[in-house]
Write a structure and sequence with these properties.
globular, 4-stranded antiparallel sheet, alpha+beta, Alpha-Beta Plaits, 3 helices
Length: 90
Amino acid sequence: MQKTIISVVGIDMVGIIAAVCTYLSENKVNILDISQTIVDGYFNMMMVVDTSGSDKNITELQQGLNLVGEKMGVMIHAQREEIFQQMHRI
């Protein structure tokens, strides 16, 4: 299993979750966990996904997610789980 952490932040609008999930599905990325919230019109989503079934490497997936984000007007970041953990440890 190759876990990746994906975060999505931006102004709330219809279709953000659908666009991100469609991209992941098309690239054989399995969603393991997902949390989303909207605070005062601002959308925030965090996902833990398994990229081991995808034909694309993490860089290609990041580039594709960036394009999805640009179309939706949100920022999408994807990081390998081990990098995310190292950046966020106390």
